[in-house]
Design brief:
This protein has 3 helices and 16 strands. 11% of the residues lie in helices and 62% in strands. α2 packs antiparallel against α3. The chain is mainly beta. It has helices spanning 2-5, 8-19, 25-46, and strands spanning 47-60, 71-74, 80-83, 93-107, 112-125, 133-146, 150-163, 166-183, 186-199, 209-221, 227-240, 258-271, 275-292, 297-315, 318-331, 338-351. The protein starts with a helix and ends with a strand. β10 (209-221) and β11 form a beta hairpin. The strands form 2 sheets. The chain has a 14-stranded antiparallel beta barrel with strand order 1-4-5-6-7-8-9-10-11-12-13-14-15-16.
Length: 352
């Protein structure tokens, strides 16, 4: 009865007690089957593994995140007009994407656990192969759960990024977050992250920076149980840590340190048992503290992005996702202003 009710600890105790009372062989065999089943269920709860693979096709109107303005006036040269290289202008292309990853988590006891995971993502363009990317990311850490209402997670992370099949930069850092469940319909989170970004090419070390991000979010499940709304706010600070070199005698990047603020909101709703619709939008602002030597301005950016699409699950482990992403960056320095639209279709297989 305990076993059928799912009270496995008490069921195990009772089975072991009866087993010690020298029962008939048939009863002993039955008891062992139950004990084996309990052990298997407890082992499954102790260690969990999930993984995925996915592939997609899409069209991107701006694969290099560049301005569409081919001629610009440069104040430091008396507003002389310069023509930008084609590689620095908005360029459209078709692309493919592939990705795979997984995570394993293990319960050390009733409260503490550990996790480790990794992801690999590649994107290749049809003709603009100079903007092909490959990202490899890993993470590991520990979790602490308090009465199922508070979940703490802290860990380290590291990554490698390739551009045009060449090692471009590395990242490393750590993150910590706390999630609190107020009720089955409401959940709050607070997170902090610190990361180091270092470029491999000596000529690019001028762009090295350290980033600190603090964020908070809220998730709400509507009364129908089929729809979810969420919102988040974050503050970010990028510290300019580029080294002093012969070509950069004063050190630092052209625009200096950056302070940022971001907002994001969105939602998801189920359409029947197999389909979910989703949409989210974000607003970010960034202010730099150094006057750009070429444009004689302190750079200011305002980024808007919108993402919408659907997830169709024709099987519990398969997902087909059509998606539209739109990005628009406004900047007081023209070479950093751009817009971009990305339309894609992705198929994903999950393993749980």
């Amino acid at each position: 009865a305990y076993y059928q009710l799912g009270d496995l600890p008490r069921a195990k105790t009772e089975f072991e007690t009866v087993s010690k009372q020298n029962p008939p062989e048939a009863a002993r065999a039955t008891i062992q089957k139950y004990l084996d089943a309990i052990a298997a269920q407890q082992a499954a709860k102790q260690t969990r593994f999930s993984a995925y693979v996915e592939g997609g096709l899409g069209h991107d109107t701006n694969v290099n995140n560049s301005t569409s303005q081919s001629q610009i006036d440069v104040p430091v040269f008396g507003n002389q007009t310069f023509t930008l290289s084609p590689t620095n202008l908005k360029t459209a292309d078709n692309y493919y994407s592939v990705a795979a990853g997984g995570e394993v988590s293990h319960n050390l006891d009733a409260n503490w656990g550990s996790y480790a995971g990794a992801d690999a993502r590649q994107r290749g363009n049809n003709t603009q192969t100079g903007f092909d990317t490959l990202g490899l990311d890993g993470r590991a850490g520990v979790t602490f759960t308090d009465s199922e209402k508070n979940i703490f997670r802290i860990g380290g992370m590291a990554g490698r990024y390739n551009l045009a099949r060449v090692h471009d930069h590395n990242s490393s850092g750590f993150s910590a977050d706390w999630r609190h469940v107020y009720s089955p319909a409401n959940q709050m989170s607070i997170s902090a992250q610190y990361g180091r970004n270092r470029f491999v090419d000596p000529a690019m070390t001028i762009d090295n920076f350290d980033q600190t991000t603090l964020g908070t979010g809220w998730l709400h499940v509507l009364e129908d149980g089929q729809s979810v709304l969420f919102g988040s706010l974050f503050l970010a600070n990028e510290n300019d840590v580029a080294p002093i070199t012969p070509t950069n005698p004063s050190g630092g990047r052209a625009d200096g340190n950056k302070r940022g603020l971001g907002l994001r909101a969105g939602g998801q709703t189920a359409m029947g048992e197999e389909t979910e619709l989703f949409a989210n939008l974000g607003l970010q602002s960034g202010v730099y503290d150094k006057t750009n030597a070429s444009f004689l301005l302190k750079r200011k950016d305002h980024l808007f992005d919108l993402s919408t699409g659907a997830n169709w699950h024709w099987d519990k482990n398969w997902t087909l996702r059509p998606q539209l992403n739109y990005t628009r960056n406004y900047s007081n320095i023209v070479i950093y202003s751009y817009n971009r639209m990305d339309v894609s279709l992705t198929i994903r297989r999950d393993f749980r």
